[in-house]
Amino acid sequence: MQPEANYYFLDGEAERKRLIRELNEVRDEVIRLIMEMPEDLWYEERYHGWTPAAMLAHLNMVDGMSLLLIKAALIGFRPKIGMGMVDRMNNFTSRLFRRRVVPTTIAGIRSKQTHLDEFIMQLPIDKFSTQVYDPVEAQYITVEHALQALFVHHWYKHLQTIREVEGIEQPPEERSDSV
Questions:
Q1: Is 150 part of any domain?
Q2: What is the pTM of this model?
Q3: How many Cβ atoms are within 10 Å of 67's Cβ, its own excluded?
Q4: N or C: which terminal CB in the chain sees fewer CB atoms within 10 Å?
């Protein structure tokens, strides 16, 4: 299930579990689509110059960096990382990761996923309003917003790219035009 375009409050256990469920579902779907491909396609440029192997490695790396950024904000360090730096890093990593071993990357994603689940459930509610800089939005956002933007919405954007390139129709419950 794709998250709504807006963000929701993570005040209670049910809302945090919802976020974890969405986080896990989108990762499962991205991994499933790539694993269903013949292995030789994993290393073919398919997504705006990115190979599926590079796309997975990018998502895994960004999850790690995003978690570090949030943890840094929680202790008072809130660097402003601009889109120029993000674009340069993405260009570099698209080449660096183009032949990344897919099963190894998936193992890393799964390991990080468990850590993210625990982090979300254990984060004190008073920390959700802490500000962290989001280069995509070019502004400071709350940790509560960042958890959804960086760990769910970012993955859905890449899932949509995969679906479009592979000619996979978006399920009706995920389309914005569904009632």
A1: yes
A2: 0.91
A3: 18
A4: C
